[in-house]
Amino acid sequence: MSALNLKPNIDGPDDFYEDLLAIHEGKSKDESDAINARLVLILANHIGDRDVLKAALEAAVA
Amino acid sequence: MFDERYKLAFKAYPYERSADQDASIPVRHPVVVMGGGPIGVATALDLGRQGIPVVVLDDHEGVGMGSRAICFAKRSLEIADRYGCAQPMLDKGVVWNLGKVFHDDRKVFEFNLLPEDGHKFPAFINMQQPYFEQFMIDEVRALQAQGAPIEIRGKNRVESVDVKDDHTVLNILTPDGPYTIEADWLIGCDGANSPLRSMMGLDFKGRVFQDSFLIADIRMINDSFPTERWFWFDPPFKSAGASTLLHKQPDDVWRVDFQIGWDVDRVEELKEDNIRARLDAMLGPDVEYELVWSSIYTFQCMRMDKFRHGHVIFAGDAAHQVSPFGARGANSGMQDVDNLGWKLGLVIAGKAPEALLDSYDRERIHGADENISNSTRSTDFITPKSETSRLFRDAVLHLSEKYEFARPLVNSGRLSVPCVYDGSPLNSEDGLPGGPLRTRPGAPCPDAPFQSGYLLDHLGDEFVLLGINTSVPSQLEDGGVAVKGFSVSAADDTAGHIAGRYLGDADTAVYLIRPDQHVALRMTKFDEATVRAGLRRALAKEVD
Ligand SMILES: Cc1cc2nc3c(=O)[nH]c(=O)nc-3n(C[C@H](O)[C@H](O)[C@H](O)COP(=O)(O)OP(=O)(O)OC[C@H]3O[C@@H](n4cnc5c(N)ncnc54)[C@H](O)[C@@H]3O)c2cc1C
């Protein structure tokens, strides 16, 4: 079992953030919401580990 | 006086006057079953085959007309096979393996049930519920002809009960007027609205879903719809409903389910013209069909707190109700009967303590909770109840078209599989290192080819000691309960199914199998003391 990493882990944080905003550019609120939902699912599948996912769900709510 | 709540498909047990109606003091019966639906009749079969006298009381004279259940799972067929009536079901039923999922106008993916090789029965058959019931009643008639002590009394409506510690007094209404009988054991199989539950003031708790479905069974000769399960989320034929299911049944009949929302005018929706408008939107204007049966149902996931109340025991829809997604209603009721039959039989024969019946409660509540959880999840996916829930649902469907990873998340009904009684007090500790998970204590035995037939043909009805690549005694007895033993050589099954399903990484195995074909105990080699202790545990007897 691996633990959820809550330390900085992204190489080039500003670049990533820009990319994240870029996919939402010009999108309506509904389109953006749909994109975010798909993104959550894609990332969750990539992580796979149920314990990590649980910890991430909790971290997001807290 | 006798209002029929539904029309009959088959008049299977017309009212006949019984001698009990002329008795001066109420006649006492060992077992009375209230309700002659599929679960009540199956209960009668199970007990009658054991030679236990059983009287079934039903307020109608046969099998209801509405088709209701259409998907019958492998486990139900295996149970029916133990009762001797699976073959006609198999002959009549439609076997299907392929499912297609559509979102709007696109097919997002298809799945194959990929039935495992080496089983006598397919994963599922589709068949109208009245056939399922009628085939069991035919078996009752065949057993009666051989002297089995089963009676089904039509137009016998239970009006009130007086529940005592060790028996129940039943007041029954017939076309000839009222009469009274007594039952040592009363089995409540009187359906989801169980009058018995109300008479006893017992709760039925859970969740009601705010949606309704319109079912239309239609007859059409049409080759453009193959024998597959088609499910639409947000179908393109918008006027049809928010989701739609199309599924084939025998006799050129198709089941169509439309999700039509919560606030509907039932009378209006059920008018043939309005049903046809939805069907035409779906099938196209030029398709000819005949409307066989239609109904609107809302659904709920509910269960009783306890299924056993002293000498009154509930089974089937009376004990628990699930939404139809996943076909878990009748299929789980059959597992109730499978579980209850041998236990009640041994208790009545004085070979097991009454405590054995508490394990029915424990095991089948576990089963009901599993079914309720599964069908609640399906329902939440099919009919999302919040904006966010819909957002994720649509995201899953969207992704599943392109990416394989999202397909397992699509939930248009998880099809019924039998329950594993993990944690049951009847289980002994797993004593087979390397043994497959699927045959752990509490699990139903998976089928496998054996000799010229199948393994399950040789299991069930009594306790069985199965040796694999090792010998076991052919006979053993403990406290009046007999155990039949036999050995198989895994090498005889060249396809390797017995080895794969029962040995895993072990070289030899011994299984103690309950009369309902669930594993009680397993170990590497026969050890008499362990087997005797395991048997006593499986009978809820004291084990030291
Ligand atoms: C639309 C729909 C689709 C379904 N699809 C499936 C499916 O695909 N697969 C599946 O496994 N299940 C399915 N089910 C569920 C299935 O139909 C039920 O689980 C099943 O009928 C339950 O059987 P039962 O014997 O417990 O109760 P019931 O079939 O309801 O029988 C109860 C009997 O008790 C009798 N009775 C009631 N009151 C009295 C009284 N006072 N005295 C005497 N008799 C009485 C009734 O007349 C009736 O005959 C579906 C249900 C619906 C509504």
From TrEMBL, chain A:
<dbReference type="Pfam" id="PF10932">
    <property type="entry name" value="DUF2783"/>
</dbReference>
<dbReference type="InterPro" id="IPR021233">
    <property type="entry name" value="DUF2783"/>
</dbReference>
<protein>
    <recommendedName>
        <fullName>DUF2783 domain-containing protein</fullName>
    </recommendedName>
</protein>
Automatic annotation (TrEMBL), chain B:
<keyword id="KW-0285">Flavoprotein</keyword>
<dbReference type="InterPro" id="IPR002938">
    <property type="entry name" value="FAD-bd"/>
</dbReference>
<protein>
    <submittedName>
        <fullName>3-(3-hydroxy-phenyl)propionate hydroxylase</fullName>
    </submittedName>
</protein>
<keyword id="KW-0274">FAD</keyword>
<dbReference type="InterPro" id="IPR036188">
    <property type="entry name" value="FAD/NAD-bd_sf"/>
</dbReference>
<dbReference type="GO" id="GO:0071949">
    <property type="term" value="F:FAD binding"/>
</dbReference>
<dbReference type="GO" id="GO:0016709">
    <property type="term" value="F:oxidoreductase activity, acting on paired donors, with incorporation or reduction of molecular oxygen, NAD(P)H as one donor, and incorporation of one atom of oxygen"/>
</dbReference>
<dbReference type="Pfam" id="PF01494">
    <property type="entry name" value="FAD_binding_3"/>
</dbReference>
<dbReference type="InterPro" id="IPR050641">
    <property type="entry name" value="RIFMO-like"/>
</dbReference>
<feature type="domain" description="FAD-binding">
    <location>
        <begin position="30"/>
        <end position="372"/>
    </location>
</feature>
